[in-house]
Task: structure prediction
Amino acid sequence: MNRKKSFTHIFERIAAEHSTTVEEVRREIEAAIQAGFNNPDPKVQAQWAKIPRKGDIPTPDELITYVVRQAKQNDAEALLRRYLLW
Result:
């Protein structure tokens, strides 16, 4: 499965589970990213700085890529599959 399709699949599943649209899921994730990114706590800022991104702040796709990679690196792939990947 290519990366773009994988993201679509995740967002579609979240939208279906919450009776909303993919666009609303993306907007909510973007709002959460913005809130977290604007947190003045240096520890929080250090965590956000670890997320690879092309722009000033990570996109929902970039955030999910990072979270998935972190889960795999920390042997939490089973948990990830349970909650995100069917």
User: Anything to note?
Assistant: The chain has a mean pLDDT of 86.
